[in-house]
Design brief:
- The chain has about 50 residues and is α+β, with helices and mostly antiparallel strands.
- It has one domain.
- Strands 1-2 form a two-stranded parallel sheet.
- It is elongated, with a radius of gyration of 10 Å.
Length: about 50
């Protein structure tokens, strides 16, 4: 499975396993789209 240069949608990506997964996939050169129930948490993750 190719895990580089993809566009990936992650639900629940503002904390926990979703956040960790999004960070690891981002480091591999992917474009990550994160969805969350909390806009505040999304904005915090965006700052990082």
């Amino acid at each position: 499975m190719n895990l580089t240069n993809n566009t990936i949608l992650i639900t629940g990506g503002s904390s926990g396993i979703g956040l960790e997964l999004s960070q690891r996939l981002l480091k591999k050169g992917n474009k990550i789209i994160i969805c969350s129930r909390s806009e505040e948490k999304l904005l915090e993750v965006k700052k990082k």
